[in-house]
Structure formats: structure tokens, C-alpha cells
Amino acid sequence: MGGDVAMMTRPELERRLVHEGIRPDAYDLESRRSRDEVYCLERGEAGWVVYYRERGLRREERVFPSETDACCYFLDLILTDPTTRISR
Hints:
Blueprint: H1 10-19, E1 27-28, E2 38-44, E3 47-54, E4 57-64, H2 67-79
Parallel strand pairs: 1-2
Antiparallel strand pairs: 2-3, 3-4
């Protein structure tokens, strides 16, 4: 998982997503947007939470103890979904 990244924060994750050509409307790192069909990362009571929001529901939710673990998982997850890329 993200072997080339020793520590990753949400700002660094966002820079990587832009660099990789991921559509901004494919993810939500702020937990403020209410649209569906997006990958989400947020800080929860039990740790850092990654999930896919679809029809108002959290799908495939995973909780991580650290921000770095959650960001690395999020990056791997979104990079493997070809629908998240900006069309060129």
C-alpha cells in the first residue's frame, strides 16, 4: 500500500490525486459535500474512515488507525477505478 510514501496527509493525498488526473468530483476529502457516487475520507471517532458514498449510504467502509494508512488505502482504491480519471 503506497510503498513510496512514508507519511501521507490529506493535503498530500489531494496533490497526488490532482497529479494522477483524478476528477475532483470523484472524491470528497472534506466530508462536506452531499453528492453521491464519490470516494470519501474523513476522520471518525474510531479513526480515519474510507468509504464509497452511493445513494446516501456508506459502501465498503474501512476504518484505519492513522491518517497515513487511510490516505494510502484511499489512493490505491481510487487509482484502480478507471471511471475516476479526467477524460482527455
